[in-house]
Write a sequence for this structure.
């Protein structure tokens, strides 16, 4: 009996400790939400401009890093879009194979029908089913071709975005080299 009460007591203590730890973690999350780790821009604006000059290159580096990250994301999106395009093309090829197989079977059954072979009722039903199958597959083919066209547009859009980001990055590199050249020229004088 004593062991049973002891085990219940220990289980209760374990539960209380678990909830206490969870409460402490929630409290930490709450506290870090209130206390910001970012810079107070109002205070920073009061720093004299000559001291900000040392910070500007770091700001440029942060902006460059953001641009590189955006470019990397765009490249990944392009690869995914290209993969989607290839999958869509595969779907079109697959449906075309199914259409040609269905058309082949339809022509075979039409040949059987024209020769009057087999049970005419069953042959006519089979011809009708195959005609319906061909039309249904052609409808699916149209949908898959539309997916291909949409995938091509996505690839084109992502490529244009990449080109714009690369152009922007090259322009910023040129601007920063020009600024550094101006600084070096001023230093040499």
């Amino acid at each position: 009996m004593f062991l049973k009460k002891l085990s219940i007591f220990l289980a209760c203590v374990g539960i209380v400790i678990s909830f206490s730890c969870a409460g402490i973690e929630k409290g930490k999350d709450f506290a870090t939400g209130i206390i910001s780790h970012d810079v107070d821009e109002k205070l920073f604006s009061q720093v004299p401009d000559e001291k900000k000059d040392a910070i500007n290159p770091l700001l440029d580096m942060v902006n460059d890093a953001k641009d590189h990250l955006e470019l990397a994301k765009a490249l990944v999106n392009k690869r995914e879009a290209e993969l989607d395009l290839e999958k869509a093309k595969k779907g079109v090829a697959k449906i075309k194979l199914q259409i040609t197989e269905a058309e082949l079977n339809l022509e075979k059954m039409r040949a059987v029908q024209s020769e009057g072979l087999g049970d005419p009722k069953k042959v006519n039903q089979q011809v009708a089913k195959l005609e319906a199958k061909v039309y249904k597959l052609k409808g699916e083919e149209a949908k898959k071709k539309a997916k291909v066209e949409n995938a091509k547009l996505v690839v084109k859009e992502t490529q244009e975005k990449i080109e714009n980001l690369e152009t922007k990055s090259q322009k910023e590199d040129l601007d920063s080299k020009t600024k550094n050249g101006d600084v070096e020229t001023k230093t040499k004088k």
About this structure: Residues 55-188 form a domain with the Helix Hairpins fold (CATH 1.10.287.1490). The radius of gyration is 35 Å. The chain has a mean pLDDT of 80. The first helix runs from residue 2 to 34.
